[in-house]
Amino acid sequence: MPNLVYVSRGKCIKLPHNFKAGALDVLLRISATMTNEPVILTLDSDMYSNDPQTPLRALQACISNSSRGNGWPETSELNQDHLVNKSIESREVLSSAHHVAGCNFESQTQWGTKMGFRYGSLVEDMYTSYMLQSYGQDYLEVILSGGTTQRRWNDQKVWLMRGLSSYSIGSVEYILKSIGISTFRFNVTSKAVGEEQSKRYKKGTFEFGIASPLFLLLTTAAIINLVSFLLGIAQVFRQGSLEALLLQMLLIGFAMVNSHRVPIRPKKMEETRAKGLPLHTRVLMPRTWANRVFACVYLCAILALLYHHLIAVLHSTSMVPLFILLADAVLAFMWATSQAFRMCPTERRVFIEHLQHYVKQSDYPGLDVFICTADPYKEPPMCVVNTALSVMAYDYPPEKLSVYVSDDGGSQLTLFAFIEAARFATHWLPYCRKNKILERCPEAYFRSSPSWSPETAQIKMMYERMRARVENVVKRGSILPDYITNEAESEAFSRWADGFTPRDHPAVVQVLLEADRDKDITGLTMPNLVYASREKNMNLPHHFKAGALNVLLRVSATMTNAPILLTLDSDMYSNDSQTPLCALCFLLDPCIDSKLGFVQFPQMFYGINKNDTYGAESRQSEIVLIGMDGLVGPTYIGTGCFFRRQVFLGGSSPQLNPDLLVSKSIKSEEVLALAHHVAGCNYENQTSWGSKMGFRYGSLVEDLYTGYRLHCEGWKSIFCNPKRPAFLGKAPINLNDMLNQTVRWCVGLLEVAFCEHSPITFGARSINLLTGLCYGHMALWPISSIPVTIYAFLPQLALLKCVSIFPEASDPWLFLRLFLFLGAYGQNCLEFMLSGGSIQRWWNDQRVWMMRGLSSMMFGLVEYLLKTIGISTFGFSVTNKTVGEEQSKRYDQGLFEFGVSSPLLLPMTTAAIINCISFLWGIAQVFTQGRLEGILLQMFLAGFATVNCWPIYEAILMRTDGGKIPVKLTLISIILAWALYLTSSIAF
């Protein structure tokens, strides 16, 4: 029999393996140690021999060729004249073979440069033959032709397709690679062919079927050629002049004939199946092709406008063109980076009912739920309790479920609330199971007015009694002795002694329910429930929410160490008891990428008024997550996310190993001692926590930064957006709270943008270019305040000074500006409505974006700059979750809540005054001097801003309730507006 040898070379992730050329060189060396034949044949895995006499034909050329190539091996066993006389199964030969197959063998040698298959190009075949011929080795080329006309046509058609796609993208990728930006990874050409795909190929149908940027230019060219050809025909018939257009019509018609099979409709992308039943499907969204074509057209318009601005700046002595260029350049950058979300938006569908065919319920992995709270007065304990009860009632084996509550405020009020919740849970969980209710958050369930029954009345009474006790304790600020029912509770509260403050206190870890011991009223096991408040010291950094989550990571690792984690905000209760099963459809799928690190659910809110006054619905965030899902996956948004524990604890201490099975009672002294130890404020000193392990430090937006760093490390994610919202939270319904929250976000986002691992540079190299642009867009979101501020003041002040700064109505450049404005707003509105929004909600959403741009984004940008130079400004503040009755009524009526004299309201109030006055002044100019043509665009901007500012005018002039703008703030805004008008003479 012929010799048959299996080889898998040594690999190390820290050393280059040089792809196929490296594999062939290993085979060269191994074969030299074993058989060392003078003639070698190389084949791809799918290239079988079709003629048994093929070697004889090759020998006709090889026997007469006595010349040899350059480059002699460094060991005698690899010499091309070495004769092998030992058995290839002998220890000596096998040892030598393993040695030459090692990943370090080629170090400090000429392999890949002057010997073997050559390195330095992904097309190792052509590069090797080129290098060999350069050194003088002859090759016999035999070209046998005889194809058909149709084959020749298809050959030139494919050449055109390559020229419009892979050649151009390959050139761009090489340029990006040359400057250190990583784009695509090396992919093995697929040899697997589906039955349907094979049928289409036999019919002669092109196989486009996937959402690839390689098809973008191809599809765009096909559409442009079709439209221009039809317009050309129409012009010939209308004007009867073919002579001038003949060659253009010929070229366009030729391109059309070649493009008749190019697709413009997206198709299904992937479906994971086992036993014929998919766990989930993924499809490309229908609007994808339109996004790509529109992006090409819009980009051309932007480049034309920027060129026009640049010429104006070079030929003007005024500062106005420079400010306009700056504003449009920032808008162009934000638009360009936002297109990364639109290149491959996907949507998924999950089939929970198929999960039973993959895994038994008894084999579900353990699930640890993390809930974070920080202040019992801004985040009421009953709100946190409802969140915890909603996840404790999951349709999930209770012995595999654990809930950990992080109280970063170290409040005994929160602990008391959870002691009460633990008692109530023994009644609530059986009630949910028995009645199979959907709303498993008690507050949401009773708010929905369930049908009356004695059992329902009883459970509601128990809930109301618990809520009254908890709210009474919070109102008093202390716990009455009558409320403490046993010694264990008394001992727990005894830790709150003198000197115990929210910013300086020891660690507290209290097990409230243990699955192995505690039962509900029906005798079934209860989930674990653990309260944790980490140690704090005023002299040591605590890293806000990221630090609290890392403590929960370590505490849970010592107690239950479940392989799956769920993180939730204090007010984000579960709205679907089967949500963990949705996540398992991805995390347990045997066919999915092993590098799947987390599954993110959308952040949605309840109690939003009809028109969503503050844009809390956040449809734009959903659009961003859907867009990223088509790349490497969505980022982490801070709540509603299922993680694999191993993404955080891959290389930590033995007690925190993600694969460690915890067998001891979580109430044992040993486990509790270790839990208190890892919750200490000194535990992270001289460790990788926050940098390479756990949730990442370095930004106030720890969620986005953690998701970004995980993606940089190679982990992937999935966005799961079921029809029934998985989680619902409480959105801010106070303008000041919303703006303060945005300031915090902006500072954190800029910390990500300008950190050591900046998305635009490090991210584009480590992940890929499109995902790097996605993160760059999010991180640099605060700079949107620059164009918003410029366009809110500059054109209006120029109008008041009777200065025209934009093209006249008859100028074509005016129409270009209108196209850019309407195109951007139109696309945004269409996406908003396709995702389930309404026109009124979209209008409020874009109005809130402008309000943020004029206030919180600008303040966040300034605060970041001051922080960079060492000037401390505002501190971290928890978003207020408490709402007054009058404030709630005004929100339900759709009224903005101004109500406080905050500096955040000052810029928008000033802008509202200036825009209103300039618009009225412009109208007067039109009627008195007929100057509409020269000031049309300035009038349009002032009028658009005036319409958006109507709630501000209403709050200044018409309202008398507590949500109106204070008179003091109005007077300051008028003074500022007057000062800006007087000083604007410098610019005009």
Automatic annotation (TrEMBL):
<dbReference type="GO" id="GO:0000139">
    <property type="term" value="C:Golgi membrane"/>
</dbReference>
<comment type="similarity">
    <text>Belongs to the glycosyltransferase 2 family. Plant cellulose synthase-like G subfamily.</text>
</comment>
<feature type="active site">
    <location>
        <position position="703"/>
    </location>
</feature>
<dbReference type="GO" id="GO:0071555">
    <property type="term" value="P:cell wall organization"/>
</dbReference>
<feature type="transmembrane region" description="Helical">
    <location>
        <begin position="208"/>
        <end position="234"/>
    </location>
</feature>
<feature type="binding site">
    <location>
        <position position="545"/>
    </location>
    <ligand>
        <name>Mn(2+)</name>
    </ligand>
</feature>
<feature type="transmembrane region" description="Helical">
    <location>
        <begin position="854"/>
        <end position="878"/>
    </location>
</feature>
<dbReference type="InterPro" id="IPR005150">
    <property type="entry name" value="Cellulose_synth"/>
</dbReference>
<feature type="transmembrane region" description="Helical">
    <location>
        <begin position="289"/>
        <end position="310"/>
    </location>
</feature>
<keyword id="KW-0328">Glycosyltransferase</keyword>
<keyword id="KW-0812">Transmembrane</keyword>
<comment type="function">
    <text>Thought to be a Golgi-localized beta-glycan synthase that polymerize the backbones of noncellulosic polysaccharides (hemicelluloses) of plant cell wall.</text>
</comment>
<keyword id="KW-0472">Membrane</keyword>
<feature type="transmembrane region" description="Helical">
    <location>
        <begin position="240"/>
        <end position="259"/>
    </location>
</feature>
<protein>
    <submittedName>
        <fullName>Cellulose synthase-like protein G3</fullName>
    </submittedName>
</protein>
<feature type="binding site">
    <location>
        <position position="408"/>
    </location>
    <ligand>
        <name>UDP-alpha-D-glucose</name>
    </ligand>
</feature>
<keyword id="KW-1133">Transmembrane helix</keyword>
<feature type="binding site">
    <location>
        <position position="379"/>
    </location>
    <ligand>
        <name>UDP-alpha-D-glucose</name>
    </ligand>
</feature>
<dbReference type="GO" id="GO:0030244">
    <property type="term" value="P:cellulose biosynthetic process"/>
</dbReference>
<feature type="transmembrane region" description="Helical">
    <location>
        <begin position="773"/>
        <end position="794"/>
    </location>
</feature>
<keyword id="KW-0961">Cell wall biogenesis/degradation</keyword>
<feature type="transmembrane region" description="Helical">
    <location>
        <begin position="935"/>
        <end position="953"/>
    </location>
</feature>
<dbReference type="GO" id="GO:0016760">
    <property type="term" value="F:cellulose synthase (UDP-forming) activity"/>
</dbReference>
<dbReference type="Pfam" id="PF03552">
    <property type="entry name" value="Cellulose_synt"/>
</dbReference>
<feature type="active site">
    <location>
        <position position="408"/>
    </location>
</feature>
<feature type="transmembrane region" description="Helical">
    <location>
        <begin position="965"/>
        <end position="983"/>
    </location>
</feature>
<keyword id="KW-0333">Golgi apparatus</keyword>
<dbReference type="InterPro" id="IPR029044">
    <property type="entry name" value="Nucleotide-diphossugar_trans"/>
</dbReference>
<feature type="transmembrane region" description="Helical">
    <location>
        <begin position="898"/>
        <end position="923"/>
    </location>
</feature>
<feature type="binding site">
    <location>
        <position position="569"/>
    </location>
    <ligand>
        <name>Mn(2+)</name>
    </ligand>
</feature>
<feature type="transmembrane region" description="Helical">
    <location>
        <begin position="814"/>
        <end position="834"/>
    </location>
</feature>
<keyword id="KW-0808">Transferase</keyword>
<feature type="binding site">
    <location>
        <position position="378"/>
    </location>
    <ligand>
        <name>UDP-alpha-D-glucose</name>
    </ligand>
</feature>
